[in-house]
Amino acid sequence: MSAVSLISGTPRPMTGLLMALAGALLITPDTLLIRLSGLEGWGLTFWRGVLIGGGLCVLWVLFEGRRALTQLRGLATLPALVIILANLVNAMAFNFATMETSITVVVTALATAPLMAAALGYFILAERTTRRTWLAIALSMIGVLIVILNGDGALEAPEGNVWLGGFLGFLAALGIAVVFVTTRKHPDVPVLPAAGIGAILSGLIGLAIAPAGAIMTGNALVIGLMGIFVMPLSWGLLTLAPRHTSPTIVSLFMLLEMVLAPFWVWLGTGERPSLPMIGGAALVLATLTIYFLAAARDAAPQRKLSSAADAP
After folding, report:
1. How far apart are the first and last CA of the chain?
2. Residue 74: helix, strand or coil by DSSP?
3. How far apart are CA 5 and CA 106, in angstroms?
4. How far apart are CA 269 and CA 122, in angstroms?
5. Does pTM top 0.90 for this prediction?
6. Which of 35, 219, 253, 292 has a C-alpha 20 to 30 A away from that of 131?
7. Contact call for residues 271 and 106 (beta carbons, < 8 A)
8. Closest listed residue to residue 253, CA positions, set 264, 268, 242
9. Where are the alpha helices (DSSP H) in 65-190?
10. pLDDT band at 301, cuts 50/70/90?
């Protein structure tokens, strides 16, 4: 199957499922690679921003080919600028969140991004938001609060400010939610290069602020694996998957990061959450899983009606 068919061809539900699963699994070791990279703060922001952003732009050119030239004009539009700024905020907030507190706190906060997108859709796009969605948001916030309140009990975790780490995790989730909402309202916006530019800008800010000697440290192999392969490819797959399958299903697969990321970090570094943190994370995981499964069930009849209407 050609790259072009993945971008603009006939939707292939099974292809979308495989892309979502592959992207979700591929992104799970990212936080472990951050821990093993030997980078901190602005140095981490520089390398992740430049490598991930550059990788996303390369994927865009590979997927779109000559059409990438015609899409350049779209990068000067307001929706593209919103995505650039949102991904810049997401990149910087996520990097510094991982430096402040336990990975469990960060990925639990990050998992609320789809619910934040639903809330933003209500306030910005005037989309109908069900009571089930508001209940899921409330329960998820309670779960995240439980994780943060017990964040200091994590073993081998950074000894930073757990509240600051949790806030930065929420800020990163908000950045992702803004990207979701913007692309839903403006589906023609070139999201891959816009997200890539946002990441690159975060890297340039890191370069400008990083202390002398902070850039050329760290494990080059881990940094390259994280920035050139894992993150660009996973985000590329997760960005393209909704064109072939339901965004709800993609969001459900992305919950794998919440489960597996702390596990990989525990295996690789010994960092592990306390039992109350696990309980709070489990509440968020259960809430989101039930919410996404119910949303997928409700969407199934609508997809069947749409398919019947399109049939000759």
Report:
1. 26
2. helix
3. 35
4. 41
5. no
6. 253
7. no
8. 242
9. 67-71, 78-100, 103-110, 113-124, 131-149, 162-185
10. low
**Tell me, what DSSP letter sits at residue 160?**
S
Q: What are the tens digits of pLDDT across the range 131-160?
A: 888 999 899 999 999 999 998 888 889 989
Report the C-alpha gap between 244 and 55 in whole angstroms: 22
Phi (first) and psi of residue 102, to 5 degrees: -65, 145
CB 48 within 8 A of CB 226: yes
For residues 296 and 246, the answer to whether their CB atoms sit within 8 Å is yes
Read out DSSP for 32-70?
HHHHHS---HHHHHHHHHHHHHHHHHHHHHHHHTTHHHH
Residue 72 carries which DSSP code?
Answer: G
The amino acid at residue 182 is T
Torsion of CA 86, 92, 98, 104, to 10 degrees: 0
The Cα diameter of the chain in Å comes to 66
- Cα dist from 289 to 21, 130, 222, 244, 282, whole Å: 15, 16, 32, 21, 10
DSSP state of 134: H
State pLDDT tens for residues 103-136: 999 999 998 888 888 888 888 888 787 888 899 9
